Amino acid sequence: MRRYTSFMIWNFPNILTVMRLIAAPGIVVMFLYFSRPMADWLALFLFLIAAISDWFDGYLARLWKQESKFGQMLDPIADKAMVIIALLVITGFSGMNPWILLPSTIILFREVFVSGLREFLGNSASLLQVTKLAKWKTAFQMIAIATLFTQGIFQHYLDLELWGMDKSALTLAISNASAETVGSTWIYWEAYALWILGVLFLWLASLLTLVSGIDYFRKSIPYLKDNNL
User: Fold this and answer.
1) In this predicted model, what pLDDT tens digit does every residue of 135-162 receive, in sequence order?
2) DSSP 84-134
3) Which of 80, 165, 199, 222 has the lowest tally of Cβ within 10 angstroms?
4) pTM for this model (two decimals)
5) Which alpha helices (H) appear in 122-166, and where do they start and end?
């Protein structure tokens, strides 16, 4: 066992990275063992903690001069695992909504494509260093996912408030808010605004993801020619 663990540097930044990697499947576990909306709250909390630690582990590693190859290897894996698993959960609970499904597919495709490029390039994969554009796409992905998790919470509370209402009754309740329905009206508009923002951020993230993927592919073209094999 010592032979396989001696390369692992267990400093605080790397511990944060490992915890973020473990937290990724934890999002799914929340929905397996807790009822909604408690599962939504726990998944959102877990995701936010992981997203914040993503910034801190790199910052602390540079500040304390504790950068390591183990951390450099694990950090992007933890990021991708968190984003992919969160998007799978959100896509499932959105009922495969095309406004969620299409940008999520673009993001998942790019991550698989770039990971395949890195594996094929082997020692030459260092040319695919993380760019500022890639960091921006990760930031937009995190914001979009957090927003959509929050929207899911409001949507669940709205469904509980309006349980049993048909479409006409719902429209009447929202358009003619009374003292009895003002709570439902507020939840409805909060859920609607979060949905718009979440979808907007997700599409922006997918666009940045696509552009950064094309940039990586362009950089790798010289290494894909047969005379370089």
Assistant:
1) 888 889 999 999 999 998 888 877 766 5
2) HHHHHHHHHHTTS-HHHHHHHHHHHHHHHHHHHHHHHHGGGGGGSPPPHHH
3) 222
4) 0.81
5) 132-161
